[in-house]
Amino acid sequence: MTSEEITDIVIQYASLYGLKIVTAIAIFIIGKWIAKKLVGVAKNLMTKAKIDETLVSFGGNILYSLALVFVVIAALSQLGIETTSLAAIIAAAGLAIGLSLQDSLSNLASGVMIILFRPFKIGDFVEAGGTAGTVEAISIFTTEFRTADNRLIIVPNGSITSGNITNASAKPERRIDLVIGVGYNDDLKKVKDVLAKIVSEDERILQDKDVTIAVAELADSSVNLVVRPWVASADYWSVRFDLIEKIKTTFDAENISIPYPQRDLHIVGSDTATLKKAA
Question: For the chain, percent helix, then strand, then coil, each to nearest 5?
């Protein structure tokens, strides 16, 4: 084969594939630039919609990755490469990865739900996922809780959204529910007056809210009364502890009994006689 023939073959292949290669490179470069611009617009829209910054960043990365896959497929198609089988391989790989990471994907979906719907925020005291504590951080896959004894507990988001979520900090006010038992021989009117006085003397208790003080149950060993004052959520535990202590000391001073669990035993007369005869 002469040099002229080789040159003709090179020119022929260059004219045949050179334009395709240049076009494929141009598609990749321009497509990548367009993908970045579209993702930037999407991020700005999500930011304006006040979506959490973590979700904005994660969503932007996902959108960019998907857009880049389409750009690469378009560029390869321009070179004459069969992309149908490539798309099928990508889909099969995605399915396999999804099945192997289904627990992680479940946590991911739960994290997106938590960030979007905001059942709680950082700083709230929450009971969820089998634990209770103050929310320290919310991420895509996990949520961090700090317990009352200063332990850090990391809970998968899937465990949180799969059960009930109790947010003690969601409302500015909370009601304290106390059950106070007194003896059957105690004067109920006096007991109610003493409880009302204790509640009225605590400035942290919201006086503009109705306070319930009522007989709730005639129990086996005591007459049970409920005491239900309202307080600011931040004062809940301190007021609760102080009220219980104040009620005990005041009842002692007022000679109001708080009975121990007890049971009366009645012996039938005939049974008593039988017992004496047997003795």
Answer: 55, 20, 25
Whether the pTM exceeds 0.70: the reply is no
Please count the other Cβ atoms lying within 10 Å of the Cβ belonging to residue 277: 7
50/105 Cα distance (integer angstroms): 24
- Strand ranges (E), 142-273: 142-146, 152-156, 166-167, 173-175, 178-182, 212-218, 223-228, 230-232
- Indicate whether 209 belongs to any domain: yes
Range of the domain at 217: 173-253
pLDDT, tens digit, for every residue of 255-267? 999 888 767 676 7
Helix and strand numbers, DSSP H then E, in the chain:
8, 10
90 and 137 in a common domain: no
Q: Which CATH number do you get for residue 58?
A: 1.10.287.1260
